[in-house]
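Problem 12. The chain below contains 259 residues. Write out its predicted structure in token notation.
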Amino acid sequence: MFDVILNNIVGNAVKYTDEGVVNVSLVDERAGTSNSLLLVVKDTGPGIPPEKHAQIFEEFRQVDEGIRRNFEGVGLGLSLVRKYVEACGGSIELESFTGKGSIFTIKLPLLSKPVTTTEAPAAPVSGPAPFSFTGKPPILIVEDDHVNAEVAEYYLRNKFEVHVASDGESALKKAAEMNFPVILMDINLGKGLSGVDVTMELRRRDAYRDIPIIACTAFAMESDRTSFLEAGCTHYLVKPYKRNDLLEVLKQACPWLPS
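Solution.
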């Protein structure tokens, strides 16, 4: 995930710096009190007026939106950076003025000391699971936003064999081809079937009548939660979420998961 953040933030600085330099610094602050990694990217590009700072993190936006543009749009670059940084529990700050270049400062939390991991045999599944399997249990992530899907996959890949469907139709197809003991269901899937539609259809299938389906959505009203549960979801997770939030819900939904 860090390589995506680094490539996009540095690539954006290089793209908009016709003359001068792009300076990149990386500081491991674990020896101090902040326990974080600090990435600072400073360029001598055209700069960004303060009133436009929030706008540049939107998808497919750039500062100069007139008829004549000197550069291509920012596209997904900075939007992707912000989503990944926030998913890691970090922060991104921008210091910039027109004609004076820009400084992006990204702060990411780190472990207090390096951890070495080794590949270990999969632990046996304890308790009643809806399907039998060996190794990591499969999970289906139904999510139309590719960044959100990648973040969820990053959070879960050590515990699950992750499968992703980007729309309702492909989710139903994957569920017919393979038995999933748990499903992470985005509610707003854009065009076509919604997450509620997919959930209701799955509940009509014998294999999926009783498995946990976790509604994962930005709809945070109590009435929304109630409607999703009535449609067949068993649990509810509000976006944006952190890794521990997701794992806690999965622990509740799947007591058979190995610790």
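Discussion. Helices lie at 2-15, 77-87, 146-156, 168-177, 195-203, 222-231, 243-253. Students who got a different answer should revisit the alignment rule from Section 12.3.
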